[in-house]
């Protein structure tokens, strides 16, 4: 099932890239593997997938040693400061930085571990009460504050758009995130790149690609519905 689903998602990614006049290689598919068993992850790996996303530190730490070492693990979920230390050396990017305090903790732990952690700023583009992330208006200020930290490097922005049956209704949020990244990128802030736009999930990744996503995070479309116990 995973294999067929991946073929179908790949076709849709290619079609969206074609519509947008983009190179397929400009979009990274992150397979969101939270709650899913190792066998399914292995199946995705055997289909050539190398970027996996999890939203819990414990789950990355548990699964990573069981699978091939060339998998790139992305931390995409809300991160508590007391979990940051465990994450060092386990993830290639933290997508969900939304406060200076969290960034300071990541930076301090990264420096202790002798590395620089790539991070994205999570933006609550639709200003949903239930979601983490900073507002569009607060983003530049937070980027500037975090840019002073030596243990992190800002690579771009991430957003989780509203859950919807109509992906078109999220197009404006994706476009706004891209505009914000372009705006901030033009300010040439030291230690800040705006090359990564992590946006689009199972329900709306095609629209996100059309609006410039460089990283899409797809779970259900590959692995099926999640069952939380
Ligand atoms: C679970 C999750 C996804 C994947 O969602 P699907 O709708 O299953 O594709 C993407 N991004 C984040 C941050 C998630 O927590």
Characterization of this structure:
The protein is an alpha/beta fold. The protein has one domain (2-223): Alanine racemase (TIM Barrel, Alpha-Beta Barrel), CATH 3.20.20. It is 39% helix and 18% strand. It has 9 helices and 8 strands. It has helices spanning 2-20, 38-46, 57-63, 84-87, 100-113, 136-147, 171-185, 205-210, 220-223; strands spanning 28-32, 51-54, 72-75, 93-97, 117-122, 152-158, 192-198, 215-218. An 8-stranded parallel beta sheet has the order 7-6-5-4-3-2-1-8. It is globular. It starts with a helix and ends in a 6-residue tail after the last helix. Pyridoxal-5'-phosphate binds at residues 32, 34, 55, 76-77, 160, 201-203, 217-221.
Task: Summarize the model shown.
The chain has 229 residues and is an alpha/beta fold. It has a single domain, classed as Alanine racemase (TIM Barrel, Alpha-Beta Barrel).
């Amino acid at each position: 099932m995973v294999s067929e689903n991946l073929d179908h998602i790949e076709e849709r990614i290619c079609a969206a890239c074609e519509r947008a006049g983009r190179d397929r290689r400009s979009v990274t598919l992150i397979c969101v593997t939270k709650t899913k068993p190792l066998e399914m992850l292995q199946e995705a790996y055997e289909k050539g997938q190398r970027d996996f996303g999890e939203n819990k530190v414990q789950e990355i730490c548990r699964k990573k040693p069981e699978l091939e070492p060339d998998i790139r693990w992305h931390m995409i979920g809300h991160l508590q400061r007391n979990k940051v230390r465990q994450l060092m050396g386990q993830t290639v990017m933290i997508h969900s930085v939304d406060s200076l305090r969290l960034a300071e903790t990541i930076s301090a732990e990264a420096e202790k571990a002798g590395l620089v952690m790539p991070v994205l700023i999570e933006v609550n583009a639709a200003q949903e009460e239930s979601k983490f992330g900073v507002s569009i208006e607060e983003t530049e200020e937070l980027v500037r504050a975090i840019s002073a930290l030596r243990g992190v490097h800002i690579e771009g922005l991430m957003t989780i758009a509203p859950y919807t049956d109509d992906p078109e209704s999220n197009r404006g949020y994706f476009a706004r995130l891209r505009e914000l990244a372009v705006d901030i990128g033009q300010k040439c802030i030291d230690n800040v790149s705006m090359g990564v736009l992590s946006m689009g999930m199972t329900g709306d990744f095609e629209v996100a690609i059309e609006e410039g996503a460089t990283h899409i995070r797809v779970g259900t479309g590959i692995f099926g519905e999640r069952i939380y116990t």
